[in-house]
Design a protein that fits this description.
CATH topology: Porin
Number of helices: 1
Number of strands: 8
Helix content: under 10%
Largest sheet: 8 strands, antiparallel, barrel
Radius of gyration: 35 Å
Strand order of the largest sheet: 1-2-3-4-5-6-7-8
Distance between the termini: 82 Å
Shape: rod-shaped
Oligomer: single chain
Number of domains: 1
CATH architecture: Beta Barrel
């Protein structure tokens, strides 16, 4: 019995020593899932645009289609969480293919806008105040400005980290304009008046550079 007891004690001691020499098991865990960065439309943006303008109702008809180019600055706030509200100011230089006799030389607007976003895309409507540098220099009226309203909408796509591109329709309405001309006839001078609606349809392609104020990062 003493022999067996000694053998059992010796085996137990060897088993304990061997277990102490074995390397400890290293616990491994699956790497944490990293969410893809979310698009955020909140913040300031600066940009430029090119496009065309078409007279909505102009009795002269010689400036129906003209080129335009300009700049815009705006601010957006994304909330709730797929809606975007913002304000934008833009100014467009309009080509005058009639030598400045008729038509709006340049147009600008300050508008609010409301959009719905799904990730990198934004569908929006806009509206607000509009102003035009209106030229009437055919011997009866000089240069003058016109105030009115504008409405429109567009689609914007955030295609890179801090860049977005847009296509936009905008309608400008500056009300009715009456032109009066003095016609010199053999018998007596005659005042001739013409009234037309000063309104424009525009299509623009734009590019914006965006900066996010909340995080200090570009998107």
């Amino acid at each position: 019995m003493k022999l067996w007891s000694a053998i059992i004690a010796l085996l137990a001691s060897a088993s304990t020593a061997l277990a102490a020499d074995l390397p400890r098991r290293v616990e491994t865990r699956a790497p944490a899932m990293v969410a893809a960065p979310a698009f955020n439309w909140s913040g300031l943006y600066l940009g430029a645009h090119v496009g065309g303008t078409f007279a909505a109702d102009n009795v002269f008809g010689d400036n129906d289609a003209r080129l335009m180019a300009g700049v815009q600055i705006g601010w957006d706030w994304q909330f709730a969480p797929t809606w975007v509200v913002g304000i934008e100011a833009n100014y467009s230089f309009v080509d005058s293919n009639d030598g400045g006799v008729f038509g709006n030389r340049n147009v600008g607007s300050v508008t609010g806008r409301l959009g719905y976003t799904w990730g990198s895309t934004l569908l929006y409507a806009k509206g607000g105040y509009a102003w035009a540098d209106t030229r009437r220099s055919f011997g009866f009226l000089g240069d003058n400005g016109g105030s009115g309203f504008t409405i429109g909408g567009g689609f914007e796509w955030m295609f890179a980290q801090n860049w977005s591109a847009k296509i936009e329709y905008q309608y400008y309405d500056f009300g009715d304009v009456t032109l009066t001309q003095l016609a010199l006839l053999p018998a007596a001078p005659l005042l001739a008046a013409s009234t037309f609606t000063n309104a424009e349809h525009t299509i623009k392609l734009g590019l914006n550079y965006r900066f996010n104020w909340a995080t200090g990062r570009y998107y």
